Amino acid sequence: MCTACETTQDTHAFGRRQFFGLAAAAAAMTAGIARADECAPFLSDMQAATTPDQAIQLLMDGNARFVAGTSLHCDLLVQAEATAEKQTPFACVLACMDSRSAPELVLDQQVGDVFVARVAGNVATTEVIGSFEYGTKVAGAKAILVLGHNHCGAVKGAVDKAVVGDSLTTLLNEIEPAVAATPLTGERSSHNHEFVQAVAEANVRMAVAALTEKSAVLKELVDAGALKIVGGLYDLETRAVTLLA
Ligand SMILES: [Zn+2]
Question: What is this structure's pTM?
Answer without folding.
Answer: 0.86
